[in-house]
């Protein structure tokens, strides 16, 4: 009988078009075929009774450990079955002639049974199976075939097979009508070689080297290769509060998140391909949708989305409902998203001394100049619009970083003039009574986003206002070296520690010269990564559960940036941009 999957136990296999999630038992509990945002055909992660799955079971089977092969997405799971070893290898072919899920079984010390249930549209629909031979089953509703080294049997809504004691085996689920054991070996070799090419695009050496490389893998697994877009996470509706309603669909390319991710990567070893794909994605999306500025997020193939929400009749992760697809933030105005794109582009231009897609970037700068005085929805995408301080601060810095690349001196002066006006607005309206940077104009509260002001060079880490802000964050939002954010429409003390924000604080302290505190925070954050280095969005400090969608690319990039900031500080260098 299946048990509720736990976020901390999840692993990811990916072909950079989509991915599958599986737990330590080897059960695949989430799979959207062909693309990250497709309707899931395996989704017991969200409903243990209705969702599809793929299990591997044997009496006396116990999990030992698991690891990826080098920096690839080929996962090896090691088990003990009544004291004897067994290895399950899972991967999704990368840039080969086929796509899907491949599972390879080492010599079985005892009989091993594997069961597959396809449940289309997140488990809300049924499907039919058609035997296409002793070792092949066609699943016409999904356009898939299950091929296996051993005979397949169909019983009700499930397909199963047995790897007998003393035998090895394999299984493939995908669109290929013909598939053999030789294909499995060929595609595994090709996949490993192709992951080596992906790995070569970015690297890191220094403190937390293995952990940073785990995060780099996570980011690279979440790239939709045809467009270069990085999805915020692989899942929908994993809750920020267990049993609560803060359950969102993150399978889109958030411009703010993508910009912050790219900014973090510009600080380490890269070839430039990742950065170019980021700017190309934005340029292509604006052109495709005939926009003069960016939307807050797009589909993985650069389409503008509506704010429509579809609620699914599912139980939810530990009874957390609603389970929904779509995201109502689609039509929000998020000044900080526009601003962070400018910051990222400025860093890219500086690193590679080459200006690309200038028409796109200059349009965004012009839009900010015309619209920075408007209230926006802010980084936390609140429904309540305000003059959010972080949005204004990022906007000023974005204009400052991009102005040097404007060849028209009049236009460059206009951008810098607006940056100065924004800074004046912040000083006059966006401080608390005790001199800290407020959440928004008129507020007496502070937020952890202010920690980013130092790494982005907006304000000096040791300035009076920054010290006042950090002091308030420590007093009101810190617990065990992890930090909560401030929300206007929800009591953030009821949600978990915000891991990305905690990484921002670690980076701040590295810049401020407090390396001991920076390391303490980084170590606390790592305490809520799993055995493969994956992060979710938040962490419940009381139950130690991971919360929110998974894997959260925003957190991974924030950790990379903070670890590199710590490295630079150890060497006597600044990581402020």
Structure, described:
By secondary structure, the protein is α+β, with helices and mostly antiparallel strands. It folds into two domains: 7-197; 201-570, Glycosyltransferase (Alpha/alpha barrel), CATH 1.50.10. It is built from 13 helices and 28 strands. An eight-stranded antiparallel β-sheet has the order 5-6-7-8-15-12-11-10, with helices on one face. The mean pLDDT is 97.
The fold-level CATH name of the largest domain is Glycosyltransferase
Structural class: alpha+beta
DSSP strand count = 28
What's the number of domains? 2
| Radius of gyration over C-alpha positions, nearest whole angstrom | 24 Å
What is the CATH class of the largest domain? Mainly Alpha
- What is the terminal separation in angstroms? 53 Å
Give me the side-by-side strand order of the main sheet: 5-6-7-8-15-12-11-10
Largest sheet: 8 strands, antiparallel
Amount of beta strand = 15-25%
Q: Judging from the principal axes of the Cα atoms, what is the shape? A: globular
The CATH architecture of the largest domain is Alpha/alpha barrel
The number of helical elements comes to 13
* Unreliable runs: none
Helical residue percent band: 25-40%
**Overall average pLDDT:** 97
């Amino acid at each position: 009988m299946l048990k509720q999957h736990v976020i901390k136990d999840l692993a990811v296999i990916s072909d950079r078009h989509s991915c599958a999630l599986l737990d330590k038992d080897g059960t695949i509990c989430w799979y959207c075929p062909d693309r990250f945002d497709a309707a899931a055909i395996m989704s017991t992660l969200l409903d243990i009774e209705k969702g599809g799955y793929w299990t591997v079971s044997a009496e006396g089977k116990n999990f030992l450990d698991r690891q990826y092969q080098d920096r690839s997405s080929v996962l090896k799971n090691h088990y003990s079955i009544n004291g004897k070893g067994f290895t399950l290898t899972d991967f999704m072919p990368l840039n080969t002639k086929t796509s899907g899920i491949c599972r390879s079984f080492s010599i079985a010390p005892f009989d091993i049974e594997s069961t597959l249930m396809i449940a289309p549209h997140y488990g809300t629909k049924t499907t039919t199976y058609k035997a296409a031979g002793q070792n092949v089953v066609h699943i016409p509703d999904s356009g898939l075939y299950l091929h296996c080294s051993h005979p397949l049997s169909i019983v009700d809504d499930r397909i199963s097979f047995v790897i007998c004691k003393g035998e090895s085996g394999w299984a493939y689920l995908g669109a290929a009508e013909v598939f053999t054991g030789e294909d499995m070996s060929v595609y595994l070799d090709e996949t490993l070689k192709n992951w080596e090419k992906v790995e070569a695009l970015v690297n890191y050496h220094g403190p937390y080297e293995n952990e940073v490389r785990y995060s780099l893998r996570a980011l690279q697994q979440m790239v939709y290769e045809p467009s270069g877009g990085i999805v915020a996470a692989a899942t929908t509706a994993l809750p920020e509060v267990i049993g609560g309603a803060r359950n969102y669909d993150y399978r889109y390319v958030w411009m703010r998140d993508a910009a912050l991710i790219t900014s973090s990567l510009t600080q380490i070893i890269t070839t430039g391909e990742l950065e170019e794909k980021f700017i190309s994605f934005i340029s292509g999306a604006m052109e495709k949708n005939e926009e003069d500025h960016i939307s807050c997020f797009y589909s993985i193939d650069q389409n503008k989305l509506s704010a429509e929400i579809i609620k699914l009749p599912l139980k939810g992760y530990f009874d957390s409902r609603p389970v929904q697809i779509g995201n109502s933030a689609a039509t929000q105005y998020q000044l900080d998203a526009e601003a962070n794109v400018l910051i990222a582009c400025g860093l890219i231009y500086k690193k590679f001394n080459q200006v690309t897609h200038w028409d796109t970037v200059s349009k965004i700068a012009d839009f900010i100049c015309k619209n920075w005085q408007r209230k926006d929805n802010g980084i936390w995408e609140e429904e309540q619009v305000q003059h959010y301080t972080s949005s204004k601060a990022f906007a000023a810095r974005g204009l400052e970083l991009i102005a040097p690349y404007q060849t028209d001196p009049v236009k460059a002066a206009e951008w810098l003039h607006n940056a100065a006006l924004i800074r004046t607005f912040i000083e006059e309206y966006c401080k608390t009574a005790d001199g800290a940077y407020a959440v928004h104009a008129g507020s007496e509260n502070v937020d952890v986003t202010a920690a980013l002001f130092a790494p982005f060079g907006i304000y000096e880490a040791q300035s009076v206002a920054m010290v006042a802000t950090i002091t308030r964050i420590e007093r009101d939002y810190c617990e065990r070296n992890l930090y909560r954010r401030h929300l206007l429409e929800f009591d953030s003390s009821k949600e978990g520690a915000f891991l990305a924000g905690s990484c921002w604080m670690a980076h701040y302290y590295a810049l401020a010269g407090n390396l001991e505190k920076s390391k303490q925070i980084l170590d606390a954050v790592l305490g809520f990564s799993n055995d493969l280095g994956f992060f979710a969005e938040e962490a419940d400090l009381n139950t130690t559960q991971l919360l929110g969608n998974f894997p959260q690319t925003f957190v991974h990039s924030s950790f990379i940036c903070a670890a590199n900031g710590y490295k630079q500080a150890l060497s006597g260098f600044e990581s402020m941009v």
